[in-house]
Every structure is written in structure tokens, then in C-alpha cells.
């Protein structure tokens, strides 16, 4: 049976291994080990902890802590670097699961290691491109705002001296440009994932989101309580855009309601405005899509990016009053 297992394991490029619970005895490893770690299998078998000599020195302590957690009974996944040779350093991912006896005591640690160097290179390249995009967007936004501020100031002076509907049109166009710049800058800064999460109350994040919104005669109601595990600043940005969307798409004052879903797996934002035509629901999250003259068509795209980055889902439907309702699900409550 052991021979059959070895023959099967040797057909893959992934390293399969089994250690004793204290990591001092290597009970199984396939031939792929040498191709990734750059160490002969015989040397590894003779000294099981010698694999740590192949780990990049900046990652050794983290790998050791991971082995200790596994010995304590924790299944885990870790990414780290391996010095295959003096010239080549690889990124690898290891996953393992403790094997316990009938009493729950850890008898051995079974797992596998695979190379992920290409993936890490792509991720780093994406980070660099996002940083370049953000820097470019910031520069363009700054360069555009300077002439817009000059134009806006002169329009205000001209409106003091004379009344003209054309001046009002120009003033509205400048305001729309300012909104467009803000939305483009926000969109450029959105990352594909959330790196840092913290706990924040649902009520607090909703209330703070409304502080930057000109509500005029519109009102905001909050229903339900919960503690979100999220990036608070980005969730606030998403909610701000949902609130603005409700106000901008209504000719009259609206009542906006933000609440926890009855299923406790998410929250919603709804209004009693005109709602969203079913034919438009498949397009509302597309960049540039809008049916109002003052909109940039980027607000809901920003919302979608933030929700996706958290690993959540968002859907649009009709509220009980006939308005728009956005449901965010797969949310982690603490």
C-alpha cells in the first residue's frame, strides 16, 4: 500500500509529506521535494528539520510558529520563500492537517507544499500597476482641479454681476466635473482585496457614512444591530455612494433605510424613491452607466468593487415601497 501511495504521489509536482507530531520524524515524502526545496530527499529523511535550512531567513520564524500551531492541533496554510539554490528563491504554499487518535491527541501532521512563484509575481505586478494607476489618477485630478477652481471662482464673480441661465449651466457642469474627478480618483484607489479588517458596529458605520452626504429633506433610518468584521473606511465609502444614489435618482425627498437582513448574513440599503427598472439591474454596476444627467456612472461601480473586495455579494431588487433595494450578503458578523 505504501509503495502504491508513493508511486501515485510521484506523479505530481506537489510535495506530499507526513511528519510526526513533534516534526522530528519524517514518515513520508515524495520525490517532488528535491525539485522545490533543492535538497536531496535522502538528506531530508536523515534530518527532517533540515527543511528549515532551505527556508528564506526572513520567513524561518514564521514557519516555525506555524509548525508549533500544527502540533497543537490546528490546520493551517502558510506562504513563504524557499532558497532552492544560491541563485533561485521560490515562493511556496504549504497546507497541513493534524491527524489525531481516538482520544484527540495529535499523532502526525500530513500536508503538501506547492510552488506559487508565478502567482506571487503576478500579484506583485498587479500591486505595482495599481500604485502607478493611483499615482496617475492623483496627478490628473490635481491638474484638472486647478483650472476648474479658476473657472468656478470666475463663474461666481460673473453671477454676482449678471443673471444668466448660461452661467447656471456652466456652474452645474463644473460641479459635475468635480464629482467625476472624485469618483475616478476613488475608483483608481480601490484594491482587489481587503488587507486589514476591524470590528465596527453596523449603526456606527451607517451613521458616519451619512455625515458626508447632503441629505436636504431626505431622512435616514437604521434598523437592527450587529458587529461587522470589515474595512470600516471602505464600507463607509460604499454606503455613501448608495445613499447618494438614492437621493440623486429621486425628484423629491426620500427615506433611506439601512438594516440587518432577517437571515443575519448581511445588510440592506433601500429607499422609497422611483426604484430601478428591472431592465437596468444587470447594468447598474457597470462603470459609466447612469440615467441621470448629474451622475458620473461610477458610484455603484465603486460600491461593487468594495463589496467584491470583502468577498461579499450584492444584489439589487425592489423595496417594499417600490424603491430601490440593495442587499449585501455573505457578510461576516462577529
Automatic annotation (TrEMBL):
- Please name the SMART domains in this protein's record: HATPase_c, HisKA, PAS
Describe the location of the PAC domain by residue ranges.
76-128
Query: Under which main EC class is this enzyme filed?
Result: transferase
User: What sequence ranges are listed for the domain PAS?
Assistant: 1-74
| Molecular function in Gene Ontology | phosphorelay sensor kinase activity
Q: Which residues form the Histidine kinase domain?
A: 139-329
Matching Pfam families: HATPase_c, HisKA, PAS_3
Protein name listed in UniProt: histidine kinase
